[in-house]
Amino acid sequence: MKFKLKIWRQKNNQDKGGFKTYDLDGVSSDMSFLEMIDVLNEQLIDKDEDPVHFDHDCREGICGMCSMYINGEPHGPLRGVTTCQLHMRSFSDGETITIEPWRAKAFPVIKDLAVDRSAFDRVIQAGGYISVNTGGTPDANEIPIPKTVADEAFDSATCIGCGACVAACKNASAMLFVSAKISQLSMLPQGQVERDERAEKMVAQMDAEGFGACTNTGACSAECPKGIDLSNIARMNREYLGAKLSSGK
Amino acid sequence: MSWLSDTLTSTIGRKLVMSLTGLFLIIFLVVHLAGNFQLLADDGGLAFNAYAKFMTSNPIIKTTSYGLYAFILIHIIMSIALVRKNKAARPVGYSEVKGSANSSFSSRNMGILGFIIFVFLVIHLRNFWYEMHWGAIQMDDAGNKDLYKVVSAAFSEWWYVAIYVLCMVGLAFHLSHGFSSAFQTLGVNHSKYTPFIKKLGIAYAILIPFAFALIPIIMFLNS
Q: Mind listing the UniProt keywords for this protein, alphabetically (chain B) (predicted)?
């Protein structure tokens, strides 16, 4: 297959950056999107040019590192997958593909397509933890949790923190990510100790990082590679407003 | 009271304010529409004028109307604050956005649709509300201000009716997202109720603006 690639190139955070177009021939339809960029980069290195910088790690769709905004959508046109699980058969031969980094004030560009997502780490640090007693490994089923609750909490916990929700949102809002992280803990008995404090602190940190507000467009959930549901955001709103009304401070 | 101002200026708190004021305005529209139907009564406007007199003089209605003015202003001011914050959250935009692939037209254009309603509101308040309160209006046979005459004069102009109907289309799209979105913001998202709320929201967004638009059309055809 043959493609015209319109890729965002930016030397560093201070650089203004701009699009550069590359022609790439001989691409197999079975290549993943990242392998296609690998081929391009080999060619660029051979020509003594700076290769395109991008984030990737597991290439199995579970780490959340890859982060390309492809043809107007995070992780490209295919639903329920990360960029590494997107294959070139999802595109037509001769197509022009536009590739941009995640765009958000809270996700500054490091270089080319790589952005700094440590804002998510700081949101987690603010409250995405539980207090546990140290000691021996607890027995299985020591704390009874209904299967439906465990399943729902697990659905929220499948969030891999890739940031596609922020990239897809017209407001660059991080609410789907933050709400999934608040939900997975607030539904389980282990998460009850810091429940109120968690909602207040994580939302405060989310706001401090400069993410936008939610318009309930649902773009985040539609583009999420793990299909995190909008009901998480409603739950976060309940948790946050409830905590604000009833907490001691 | 700093916890309260903290809450109401957070991203979730601001949306809470949008949601609550929006729901109040949704209820208000029903009341307003019920009153409008009296324009169609075949009595030269006597019932409508008596109703207009009641709505501008009854102490309970007057008190509620101050709340209404405040809620409209808060809804507008808060939306401007949210738009500014949301724009600031993405200083560098994308060259290509496929919004239609993941979200509805209304949900992506609530600000523009809201602005259409705001423009309508300015015209509407100037022509009817301002005239009723401070304009020089003749009296009808029952001794009430003849607001019916002002309204029917406006609705005898085709372009005025056209603007009115177009603004109601804007209102319909605004409501088609706003109605169910208000519940989601309040945290009401449940597998039993959310599908019903969404259907009710769409039905409301079609029926109410349609009925509002129908009245000037009928009055224009009768004029």
A: Membrane, Transmembrane, Transmembrane helix
